[in-house]
Specification:
heterodimer, A: 247 residues, alpha/beta, 2 domains, 5-stranded mixed beta sheet, B: 416 residues
Chain lengths: 247, 416
């Protein structure tokens, strides 16, 4: 049986309670494509059941909800299933299992969490703001995982006097800091009127990027390992993703 | 706004400085812009594979010194430009605001005099910290022979400072950088280390070089061996409390009869960094890593080389060996060692487990047993053969990647 959830934590925990005694069970969020012949049931989030499941799990491991939080932020379609295997092991063992790295379920969960937290760290560096005519900063981005709001605390602490918008172009939503408060909002497309100097600073950055490179030591493979090409799209140092060294 | 021409010249003059780290500072944003990022943060990567964290730039390339290896030396025929403290501060803020950079790494040629130059560097950081209220990362280069008071003033505003010791021996320094001396580089480093310690002991207000000091030396322009370089590195960590020692392989931008015409292979630089990690994170001493008058082998990483000289300690059983022993196994790094310690609490680990945990076994399998099983080569000669075979393949790949004359030459002559 496949238990389909709405993708939320509550939905997952509700499904978990139903699924965990069923050895054949799978949990997925409803966006998943089902193959023919699979039996599926949609599980609506139930606050009471979810709370019950959460309390039981916290008795076994008081830190496990943080792990669930990051797992469900993953952009991988099998994130609920990976979380399910991890939490089922926890429920069976009745004690923290995160150190049991010889278990596939633990390792898969640990690796998925790492891809999410690693992308948050990477985005702290790879986000590029443009300055709008009003002085607010705007950054479009295409993260693999659903993390745009998780980037806010970093930039808010750093840019505290500058309002900014972090726009997840793929998921069509934005985290907005207005100089005081933070909120999440759906955002399809943004029209940004740039400040008078914006183009000039971009040109200087491009000049800097080209000047600081040592062309005799080209190591593109290493470069792309550290900074995958899919992140280049909104970086002003590249005119096009295929041409990292355009003059 | 600084113009593109000067930005280009001042960047190209600074780019051979290796240090790019922005780690170690917890400076808070107390109003204004910016803060420290303890783990450090890379903002971009250039096609040479290096990270851009800081805006690395010279205040001026107009140098009164005549260091033989330097493209900006007094006698060189190059365009001379300078930037003003205001221009550098504005550039830093506007790059930082857009999240291009994590902070500033400011260096300079010795313009007019050491004090004149140091004063301008100090003026720039003060401007950034007080007027622009910038709390992001600042790494400042120390100018040799500048006044002690100026240096101390700089340290109040910078997160990190560095004096480049340039060469691994006094003799080479005298020969190739005649206006610098061992004292002009080591004394201010020592003074800063002492002041820093005093500052922390007295728990004074404010910050004093929260990210400490680093240094850099050029490798391959002078005759010192890796054994000597590793010993010097160790003493710099121990006596000066440095956070990092950087190496830069010599690139001949200048022709001089005292300097080699060929660049040093990056493989040598790579081996030195591996040795440096063994010193800092793996509990090795310089004496264990390389005999004083020898270079590190190029065909083996320094941990493999040490292990092959010390086969009496191996194999070790991964289910029992303590952390410090696991860390000495070739191929096992800090993360793998931690994973092993954690996982073995729950079950007896076998090779299948290790493989799934992504412990790299290519080298390690010759030096470990897992649950009593051993899958390595039987004799030291066979182990050496297996380890160098892998490395040679890698070097062949590196050759096409780097197109580096030294490696190319050694490959042609079969001398690896």
């Amino acid at each position: 049986m496949i238990y389909l959830t709405d993708g939320t934590k509550e939905g997952f925990l509700t499904a978990f309670l139903l699924a965990y005694r069923d050895g054949e069970a799978l949990i997925a969020s409803s966006q998943t494509q089902l193959s023919l012949g699979q039996r599926a049931v949609f599980v609506a989030p139930d606050p009471v059941r979810a709370k019950k499941a959460e309390q039981r799990l916290l008795e076994f491991d008081k830190n496990c909800m943080e792990e669930l939080f990051y797992l469900l932020r993953s952009g991988r379609p099998d994130r609920e299933q990976i979380a399910f295997r991890y939490f089922r092991l926890l429920a069976e063992s009745k004690r923290p299992v995160r150190g049991m790295l010889a278990e596939d379920g633990v390792r898969d969960a640990a690796e998925l969490i790492r891809t999410v937290t690693q992308e948050i760290h990477r985005m702290h560096g790879f986000v590029r703001f443009m300055e709008s005519a009003s002085g607010a900063l705007y950054a479009p981005l295409l993260p693999d995982n659903d993390i745009v709001d998780l980037l806010v605390p970093h930039f808010r602490a750093r840019l505290r006097e500058y309002p900014f918008v972090l726009h997840d172009v793929k998921r069509k939503k934005a985290a907005v800091y207005d100089g005081e408060n933070v909120f999440l909002a759906p955002l399809e497309r943004a029209e940004v009127a740039l400040s008078a100097d914006e183009q000039g600073w971009r040109e200087l950055w491009r000049r800097y990027y080209r000047s600081v490179n040592i062309p005799e030591r080209e190591r593109l493979k290493q470069m792309k390992g550290y900074m995958p090409v899919r992140y280049w799209k909104f970086m002003p140092e590249f005119s096009s993703p295929d041409d990292p060294v355009a003059p | 706004m600084i113009d593109e021409r000067r930005l280009k010249i001042l960047t190209e003059g600074a780019k051979y400085d290796v240090s790019c780290s922005s780690s170690g500072s917890k400076r808070k944003n107390t109003g204004g812009i910016g803060n420290g990022y303890v783990a450090g943060c890379c903002h971009s990567f250039t096609p040479d594979g290096r990270c851009i964290s800081l805006l690395k730039i010279l205040m001026s390339n107009d140098c009164a010194y005549n260091c033989k290896y330097c493209p900006n030396r007094l006698g060189a025929d190059v365009p001379r430009v300078s930037a003003t403290p205001e221009e550098i501060a504005e550039l830093t803020i506007d790059f930082y605001k857009r999240n291009y950079i994590e902070g500033l790494f400011l260096s300079s040629a010795v313009e007019k005099s050491p004090n004149y130059t140091m004063e301008r560097l100090v003026r720039t950081v003060k401007l950034l910290r007080t007027q622009y209220r910038f709390h992001g990362y600042i790494h400042l280069k120390g100018i040799p022979r500048a006044d002690g008071e100026l240096v101390r003033e700089a340290a109040k505003y910078a997160d990190r400072m560095s004096y480049n010791i340039e060469f691994p021996s006094e003799r080479s320094l005298k020969l190739l950088a005649p206006q610098k001396s061992k004292e002009s580089l080591l004394l201010p480093m020592k003074k800063l280390a002492e002041d820093s310690l005093l500052f922390r002991e007295e728990k004074r207000k404010g910050l004093f070089l929260p990210a400490g000091q680093t240094t850099q030396m050029i490798v391959g322009a002078s005759p010192e061996t890796d054994g000597q370089i590793v010993r010097l590195t160790q003493s710099l960590y121990r006596a000066m409390g440095l956070k990092r020692v950087y190496y830069s392989s010599y690139v001949p931008v200048v022709h001089d009869s005292l300097l080699p015409d060929l660049p040093v292979g990056q493989l040598r630089e790579h081996r030195l960094y591996q040795a440096d990690w063994l010193l800092r994170f793996y509990g090795f001493t310089a004496e264990e890593i390389a005999p004083e008058n020898e270079n590190l082998p190029l065909d083996l990483d320094p941990k493999c080389a040490w292990a092959l000289r010390n086969m009496q300690y191996f194999p070790v059983e991964v289910n029992r060996a303590p952390l410090e022993v696991l860390l000495r196994v070739p191929g096992i790094g800090g993360r793998s060692a931690q994973k092993i310690l954690e996982a073995r609490k729950y079950t007896k680990l076998n090779f299948e487990h290790l493989k799934k945990m992504r412990v790299v076994l290519k080298r390690a399998r010759h030096f470990i047993t897992a649950n009593g099983k051993f899958y390595g080569a039987e004799t030291v000669t066979a182990v050496r053969g297996a380890l160098t075979a892998g490395e040679q393949m890698q070097n062949a790949v590196q050759l096409s990647l780097f197109s580096d004359p030294q490696t190319a030459l050694s490959a042609l002559t079969g001398e690896l």
